[in-house]
Amino acid sequence: MDRAIGKIVIGIATCNRPQGLLRTLRSIAQQDTCLHLEILVADNDATRQEGMAVVERIASEGYRWPIRALLVAERGIPRVRNALVAQALGDPAVTHVAMLDDDEAASPGWIEAMVDAARQWNADVVGGAVLREMDAPVPGWAAPHPLLQPKMRGQSGRVDLVDSTANVLIAASALHAMGSAPFDERMALTGGSDKQLFSRMQRAGHRFAWSEEAVVTELIPASRVTQKWLLMRGYRIGMTDMMVERFHKGRMRALLSEAPRILGGAASGAFGALLTRDRGKRVQRLGRLYRAAGKIAGLAGFHYEEYRKVHGA
After folding, report:
1. Cβ distance 170 to 197 under 8 Å?
2. Per-residue pLDDT averaged across 192-206, rounded?
3. C-alpha span between 265 and 52 (Å, rounded)
4. What is the C-alpha separation between 125 and 15, in angstroms, rounded?
5. 258-274: per-residue pLDDT in tens?
6. How far is Cα 98 from Cα 294, in angstroms, rounded to an integer?
């Protein structure tokens, strides 16, 4: 399989985070690389268009890479990602599409590490490590919570699946194989369309790798370090995981395969929370219950649209 590296488009979806987007773009400008990069920003706010303004400003200042922006008026993460992919793949010189979130900053060696992993492990999709940075002091009870910990795997190498576009490099050939709209727009504000796409790629035989050296840092706002947000994020993850399972297996097979985990999570979460006075442990254990409830909701077809609200700036 040809792993030649040509032009790489770095796609960034943004909505109402001008400060975060500027931080992301500045980090890309500091990449230690001679690769052929282009930057594409898709703004998902038709009213304020702050992302468009950031790109116009940074381009006028003489940005290091070719950069352009497009407006995606209808809200929805997969709609924005599909627009980024369509624009990128319209150029036959593009061999890879990288994606970052607008609350992330890339380390100077990020894109080179992604490309090295793609070459070394003959991978169609490469995921990378995500560190966490808090924008305010974190309460002691919340600090150990798994959702606030770095996303790392301990070592680089081949993996069965990458489940997020928060730090990813994808071969253009793999995206072409998934059709003209690879991200499922029915998951517009629920999240999970990235995991669904990559699970489709996995079933189609595409190869995955992980780069522990391709580090980005996510800035977590104080509004996400609350008991309610942590519990509801667990609920949403359970829901979208089940939506992906239903997509591949249908409702009944998904229920049969997930029922033991749903029952186990609900029981251990509920009883475990009752058996501790430690707030942090209680929230983590309740998270299992919320995740199980989310799976039931996903199985039943209910949608919790977590991404209707934008956190951070």
Report:
1. no
2. 97
3. 43
4. 25
5. 999 999 999 999 999 99
6. 30
**Is residue 155 within 8 Å of 93, Cβ to Cβ?**
no
pLDDT tens per residue, range 100-131: 999 999 999 999 999 999 999 999 999 999 99
Residue matched to tokens 């931080």: 23
Are the C-beta atoms of 40 and 12 separated by less than 8 Å? yes
What would the two tokens of residue 292 be? 């199980």
Residue 295 scores a pLDDT above 70? yes
Neighbours of 209 (CB within 10 A): 24
Q: Given pLDDT bands bounded at 50, 70 and 90, which one contains residue 307?
A: confident
**What is 7-224's CATH number?**
3.90.550.10
CA dist 209 and 118 (Å) reads 7
Determine which helix (DSSP H) or strand (DSSP E) holds 164, and give its type and residue range: none
CA distances from 197 to 92, 183, 244 (A): 22, 6, 9
Render pLDDT for 232-247 as a digit per residue (tens, 0 to 9).
Answer: 999 999 999 999 999 9
Cβ distance 202 to 196 under 8 Å? no
Sign of the dihedral defined by the CA atoms of residues 92, 98, 102, 106, in that order = negative
* Domain residue extents for the chain: 7-224, 227-308
CB 80 within 8 A of CB 13: yes
Return the bridge partners of 200, or none: none
The partner residues of 106 in beta bridges, in order of sequence, read 216
- Whether residue 255 is predicted with pLDDT greater than 80 in this model: the reply is yes
